[in-house]
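tool=predict chain=A
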Amino acid sequence: MNAPMHLYLVLAMRTPGFRPEAGEAHQAFLADLIEQDLLELTGPFTDGSGGAYILRATDLATAVQITHSDPLHITGSSTLTVHEWRARRPVPRD
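tool=predict ok
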């Protein structure tokens, strides 16, 4: 039996030392997460300050481990924070 998957919101805020090549490697990292069916949503902030992605993982420790392998984190190009997110769809109004 597979462990249930939870959602984790990852905020990636650029540091002053942001390196463009880390951004390119980050895109490959995200593509790998898609292949593993671990990425729910992803995208940049319109102000250029960073971006966010929603990760699927069995627990917070696993989500952090995955996030720490993101090239943005490894190179120090961005500060990444991970938050367990109990997202829900709004109930439609009548």
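The longest helix spans residues 20-35. The first strand starts at residue 6 and ends at 14.
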